[in-house]
Design brief:
The protein has about 240 residues and is an alpha/beta fold. It has one domain (about 5-235): Alpha-Beta Barrel (TIM Barrel), CATH 3.20.20. It is about 30% helix and about 20% strand. The protein contains 8 helices and 8 strands. The protein has an 8-stranded mixed β-sheet, with helices on one face. It is globular, with a radius of gyration of 17 Å. Bound molecules: iron/sulfur cluster. Iron/sulfur cluster binds near residues 29, 32 and 102.
Length: about 240
Protein backbone atom coordinates (compact mmCIF):
# COMPACT_ATOMS: atom_id res chain seq x y z
CA UNK A 1 0.00 0.00 0.00
CA UNK A 2 1.19 3.51 -0.78
CA UNK A 3 1.70 5.58 2.34
CA UNK A 4 -0.97 8.32 2.19
CA UNK A 5 1.24 11.31 2.98
CA UNK A 6 -1.16 14.20 2.99
CA UNK A 7 0.54 17.17 4.59
CA UNK A 8 3.93 18.74 5.17
CA UNK A 9 4.91 21.76 7.24
CA UNK A 10 8.50 22.80 6.75
CA UNK A 11 9.10 24.42 10.10
CA UNK A 12 7.43 23.91 13.45
CA UNK A 13 8.71 25.03 16.84
CA UNK A 14 6.03 23.30 18.88
CA UNK A 15 5.72 19.70 17.66
CA UNK A 16 9.13 18.44 18.85
CA UNK A 17 9.75 20.13 22.21
CA UNK A 18 13.07 21.97 22.21
CA UNK A 19 13.88 21.36 18.55
CA UNK A 20 13.15 22.99 15.20
CA UNK A 21 11.32 20.38 13.18
CA UNK A 22 9.40 19.64 10.02
CA UNK A 23 6.15 17.74 10.39
CA UNK A 24 4.69 15.16 8.03
CA UNK A 25 1.04 14.08 8.17
CA UNK A 26 -0.51 10.85 6.96
CA UNK A 27 -4.20 10.38 6.21
CA UNK A 28 -6.40 7.68 7.66
CA UNK A 29 -7.19 6.84 11.25
CA UNK A 30 -8.61 3.83 13.05
CA UNK A 31 -10.43 6.07 15.53
CA UNK A 32 -13.06 8.79 15.29
CA UNK A 33 -12.42 10.91 18.35
CA UNK A 34 -15.28 13.44 18.40
CA UNK A 35 -12.90 16.28 19.32
CA UNK A 36 -10.36 15.50 16.58
CA UNK A 37 -9.22 18.66 14.79
CA UNK A 38 -7.76 16.68 11.90
CA UNK A 39 -11.09 15.29 10.68
CA UNK A 40 -10.11 16.06 7.09
CA UNK A 41 -7.43 13.37 7.46
CA UNK A 42 -9.90 10.56 8.21
CA UNK A 43 -10.27 9.73 4.54
CA UNK A 44 -7.47 9.27 2.09
CA UNK A 45 -7.90 11.71 -0.79
CA UNK A 46 -5.72 10.17 -3.49
CA UNK A 47 -5.62 13.38 -5.54
CA UNK A 48 -3.90 15.34 -2.82
CA UNK A 49 -1.30 12.81 -1.73
CA UNK A 50 2.36 13.83 -1.49
CA UNK A 51 5.09 11.53 -2.75
CA UNK A 52 7.88 10.26 -0.49
CA UNK A 53 10.40 11.57 -3.03
CA UNK A 54 8.96 15.09 -2.67
CA UNK A 55 9.09 14.81 1.12
CA UNK A 56 12.70 13.66 1.12
CA UNK A 57 13.61 16.59 -1.13
CA UNK A 58 11.88 19.05 1.19
CA UNK A 59 13.57 17.59 4.25
CA UNK A 60 16.96 17.58 2.52
CA UNK A 61 16.54 21.25 1.55
CA UNK A 62 15.97 22.08 5.22
CA UNK A 63 18.61 19.80 6.65
CA UNK A 64 20.84 22.69 7.75
CA UNK A 65 18.24 24.38 9.91
CA UNK A 66 15.89 21.68 11.14
CA UNK A 67 16.87 19.21 13.84
CA UNK A 68 13.95 16.83 13.69
CA UNK A 69 11.15 15.29 11.66
CA UNK A 70 7.77 14.57 13.26
CA UNK A 71 5.41 11.92 11.87
CA UNK A 72 1.80 12.60 12.76
CA UNK A 73 -1.68 12.12 11.39
CA UNK A 74 -4.21 10.67 11.18
CA UNK A 75 -2.56 7.57 12.58
CA UNK A 76 0.95 6.79 11.28
CA UNK A 77 1.03 3.25 12.72
CA UNK A 78 -1.58 2.07 10.20
CA UNK A 79 1.10 1.87 7.51
CA UNK A 80 3.75 -0.81 7.80
CA UNK A 81 5.68 0.76 4.89
CA UNK A 82 6.13 3.95 6.89
CA UNK A 83 8.74 2.13 8.96
CA UNK A 84 11.00 2.01 5.88
CA UNK A 85 10.52 5.72 5.17
CA UNK A 86 11.28 6.66 8.78
CA UNK A 87 14.44 4.55 8.56
CA UNK A 88 15.43 6.34 5.34
CA UNK A 89 14.94 9.80 6.89
CA UNK A 90 16.93 8.80 9.96
CA UNK A 91 19.76 7.11 8.10
CA UNK A 92 20.19 9.57 5.26
CA UNK A 93 19.51 12.87 7.05
CA UNK A 94 20.42 12.06 10.65
CA UNK A 95 17.40 13.94 12.01
CA UNK A 96 15.79 13.30 15.35
CA UNK A 97 12.53 11.49 14.75
CA UNK A 98 9.30 11.89 16.70
CA UNK A 99 6.27 9.64 16.25
CA UNK A 100 2.78 10.74 17.30
CA UNK A 101 0.57 7.67 17.71
CA UNK A 102 -2.48 6.37 19.53
CA UNK A 103 -0.44 3.39 20.72
CA UNK A 104 -2.85 0.75 19.42
CA UNK A 105 -0.29 -0.95 17.17
CA UNK A 106 2.56 -2.10 19.43
CA UNK A 107 4.26 -4.24 16.73
CA UNK A 108 4.66 -1.10 14.59
CA UNK A 109 6.07 0.83 17.54
CA UNK A 110 8.56 -1.94 18.16
CA UNK A 111 9.48 -2.06 14.48
CA UNK A 112 10.30 1.66 14.22
CA UNK A 113 11.80 2.02 17.67
CA UNK A 114 15.39 1.79 16.43
CA UNK A 115 14.88 4.99 14.43
CA UNK A 116 12.52 6.97 16.66
CA UNK A 117 13.93 9.25 19.35
CA UNK A 118 10.67 10.58 20.75
CA UNK A 119 7.33 8.79 21.15
CA UNK A 120 4.17 10.73 21.96
CA UNK A 121 1.44 8.27 22.91
CA UNK A 122 -2.19 9.41 23.11
CA UNK A 123 -4.16 7.61 25.80
CA UNK A 124 -7.65 8.68 24.92
CA UNK A 125 -10.19 7.02 27.17
CA UNK A 126 -10.91 3.86 29.09
CA UNK A 127 -10.71 0.71 26.91
CA UNK A 128 -14.50 0.34 26.91
CA UNK A 129 -15.00 3.85 25.51
CA UNK A 130 -12.65 3.27 22.56
CA UNK A 131 -15.26 1.07 20.92
CA UNK A 132 -18.40 2.75 22.20
CA UNK A 133 -17.48 6.44 21.74
CA UNK A 134 -14.25 6.65 19.76
CA UNK A 135 -15.11 4.35 16.87
CA UNK A 136 -12.38 1.76 17.40
CA UNK A 137 -12.90 -1.40 15.38
CA UNK A 138 -11.57 -3.60 18.18
CA UNK A 139 -12.87 -4.92 21.45
CA UNK A 140 -12.10 -3.29 24.76
CA UNK A 141 -9.93 -6.32 25.59
CA UNK A 142 -7.89 -5.75 22.44
CA UNK A 143 -7.54 -2.04 23.25
CA UNK A 144 -6.41 -2.91 26.78
CA UNK A 145 -3.95 -5.49 25.57
CA UNK A 146 -2.47 -3.22 22.87
CA UNK A 147 -2.06 -0.20 25.15
CA UNK A 148 -0.49 -2.38 27.81
CA UNK A 149 1.94 -3.91 25.29
CA UNK A 150 2.91 -0.42 24.08
CA UNK A 151 3.52 0.73 27.64
CA UNK A 152 5.56 -2.35 28.52
CA UNK A 153 7.67 -2.13 25.37
CA UNK A 154 8.41 1.59 25.78
CA UNK A 155 9.41 1.03 29.41
CA UNK A 156 12.30 -1.08 28.10
CA UNK A 157 13.55 1.67 25.75
CA UNK A 158 16.26 3.56 27.53
CA UNK A 159 17.50 6.73 25.90
CA UNK A 160 14.20 7.49 24.19
CA UNK A 161 11.90 10.34 25.13
CA UNK A 162 8.39 9.04 25.80
CA UNK A 163 5.46 11.24 26.67
CA UNK A 164 1.83 10.33 27.16
CA UNK A 165 -1.00 12.68 26.34
CA UNK A 166 -4.69 12.84 27.05
CA UNK A 167 -7.14 15.30 25.55
CA UNK A 168 -9.66 16.26 28.18
CA UNK A 169 -12.95 15.77 26.37
CA UNK A 170 -15.45 15.75 29.26
CA UNK A 171 -17.71 12.91 27.95
CA UNK A 172 -14.79 10.47 27.80
CA UNK A 173 -12.33 11.78 30.40
CA UNK A 174 -13.27 12.31 34.03
CA UNK A 175 -11.30 11.59 37.19
CA UNK A 176 -12.60 7.98 37.56
CA UNK A 177 -11.81 7.39 33.89
CA UNK A 178 -8.31 8.90 34.27
CA UNK A 179 -7.73 6.57 37.20
CA UNK A 180 -8.60 3.60 34.98
CA UNK A 181 -6.51 4.97 32.08
CA UNK A 182 -3.51 5.36 34.37
CA UNK A 183 -2.87 1.61 34.04
CA UNK A 184 -1.39 2.39 30.60
CA UNK A 185 0.92 5.19 31.72
CA UNK A 186 4.21 4.56 33.53
CA UNK A 187 4.43 6.52 36.75
CA UNK A 188 7.78 8.02 35.77
CA UNK A 189 6.63 9.26 32.34
CA UNK A 190 5.36 12.75 31.62
CA UNK A 191 1.59 12.60 31.20
CA UNK A 192 0.27 15.75 29.55
CA UNK A 193 -3.36 16.73 30.01
CA UNK A 194 -4.52 19.02 27.26
CA UNK A 195 -7.68 21.00 26.65
CA UNK A 196 -10.00 19.92 23.87
CA UNK A 197 -10.89 22.65 21.41
CA UNK A 198 -14.59 22.69 20.54
CA UNK A 199 -14.20 25.16 17.69
CA UNK A 200 -12.03 22.84 15.58
CA UNK A 201 -13.75 19.55 16.48
CA UNK A 202 -15.21 17.63 13.53
CA UNK A 203 -18.22 16.32 15.48
CA UNK A 204 -21.18 18.64 16.00
CA UNK A 205 -21.69 17.15 19.45
CA UNK A 206 -18.13 18.01 20.45
CA UNK A 207 -18.50 21.51 19.00
CA UNK A 208 -21.32 22.05 21.50
CA UNK A 209 -19.66 20.40 24.48
CA UNK A 210 -18.42 22.82 27.15
CA UNK A 211 -14.74 22.24 27.91
CA UNK A 212 -13.31 21.86 31.38
CA UNK A 213 -12.26 25.09 33.04
CA UNK A 214 -8.59 25.69 33.78
CA UNK A 215 -9.32 25.14 37.43
CA UNK A 216 -10.95 21.75 36.71
CA UNK A 217 -7.97 20.74 34.56
CA UNK A 218 -5.51 21.70 37.28
CA UNK A 219 -7.58 19.73 39.76
CA UNK A 220 -7.50 16.62 37.52
CA UNK A 221 -3.71 16.98 37.17
CA UNK A 222 -3.31 17.36 40.92
CA UNK A 223 -5.40 14.24 41.53
CA UNK A 224 -3.10 12.25 39.25
CA UNK A 225 -0.05 13.70 41.00
CA UNK A 226 -1.53 12.51 44.29
CA UNK A 227 -1.62 9.01 42.77
CA UNK A 228 2.09 9.28 41.96
CA UNK A 229 1.87 10.23 38.28
CA UNK A 230 3.99 12.90 36.62
CA UNK A 231 0.94 14.79 35.36
CA UNK A 232 1.41 18.08 33.55
CA UNK A 233 -0.99 20.55 32.00
CA UNK A 234 -0.27 21.50 28.40
CA UNK A 235 -1.74 24.85 27.42
S1 LIG B 1 -7.52 12.60 17.53
FE1 LIG B 1 -5.93 11.32 16.57
S2 LIG B 1 -6.59 9.21 16.97
FE2 LIG B 1 -8.38 10.52 17.31
S3 LIG B 1 -9.47 10.55 15.36
FE3 LIG B 1 -8.09 12.32 15.34
S4 LIG B 1 -6.21 11.60 14.34
FE4 LIG B 1 -7.41 9.78 14.95
Amino acid sequence: MTIPFSGFKGTTLVDYPGKVASIIFVSGCNLRCPYCHNGRLFQVDKKSLISPVFLMEKLRERKEFIEAAVFSGGEPSLYEELAGFIEEVKESLGLNIKLDTNGLNPPFIEKVSKYVDYFAIDIKATPMLYSTLLGADMSSDEVRSNLMATKQFLETQSGKIVEYRTTLYPPVVSLPFLQEMSAFVPRNASWYLQQFVAATAWSKEAQQTPPYTNSQINSLANSLKDLGYHALVRN
